[in-house]
Amino acid sequence: MDMMTLWHLTAWEFAALAFAALLVGFSKTAVSGANTVSLALFAAVLPARASTGVLLPLLIAGDVLAVLTYRRHAHWPTLWRLFPAVAAGVVVGTLFLMRADDEAVGTSIGAILLLMAGVTVWRRRAADRAARATADAEGGPGGRSGPEEVTSRAGRIKARSYGVLGGFTTMVANAGGPVMSLYLLSAGFRKLGFLGTSAFFFLIVNTSKVPFSVGLGLIDAQSLLLDAALVLFVVPGALLGKWAVDRINQRVFEQLVIAATVVGGVQLLVR
């Protein structure tokens, strides 16, 4: 029995999963948050809970490629601030998965993503106004050159809040990318720092989720067989992302991340 027969997939359904796998690679090396489209495609083709188990190994493959590409640009103080809160979120997400149905999962995460996108847009507009005011007062250019200080009280509170939400959403539906993307944008990360930090973050977090997913029955021999076929499409997606990211300026990059988050949030709400 071949893989497509085992999963009862048509040729068009497999093509949709292959395209989603390509988007996984692209999102890891270019526009983080775009993999929410992959999440929606997987959930549309496969049973919702099973789709998370199939998608996780593909995300890890994309994470490995992203780390190899951007490993020199990670900001480790930010990562150490996030990990304890993310671990708590993963535990909460596991408990939620044990009780919630697919509709509750999709609605909860979609609402969180749209809320976070709105907050991020509001914060960035406020920051831009402040930067322009500073530039006018000092007679020079405004704006941020790098990530904000994560050791401040406000920075710690924000890291914990986003960390718990990120851990919860990544455990429940592999949808932590948009949440953490919004956190890194709100913290003022530039493009390469953003990609390097998120690459290490998701490699560590997604790998730590494997035992939970196996325990819940989301990853098994059947899901890994489908992964073996789909992982071939992650690599060209990552290469395409690496080519594209050098051609996207910072402002467009940030707009694409927020737009991908909004699209993913809407898809989860209407799925």
From TrEMBL:
This is Probable membrane transporter protein. The chain crosses the membrane at residues 49-70, 82-98, 104-122, 162-186, 192-212, 224-245. It is a multi-pass membrane protein. Residues 133-154 are annotated as: Disordered. Coiled coil: none annotated. Keywords: Cell membrane, Membrane, Transmembrane, Transmembrane helix, Transport. It is found in: Cell membrane. Belongs to the 4-toluene sulfonate uptake permease (TSUP) (TC 2.A.102) family. It comes from the Bacteria. Signal peptide: none annotated. GO terms for cellular component: plasma membrane. The keyword Nucleotide-binding does not apply. PANTHER family: MEMBRANE TRANSPORTER PROTEIN YDHB-RELATED, TRANSMEMBRANE PROTEIN YFCA. It holds the Pfam family TauE.
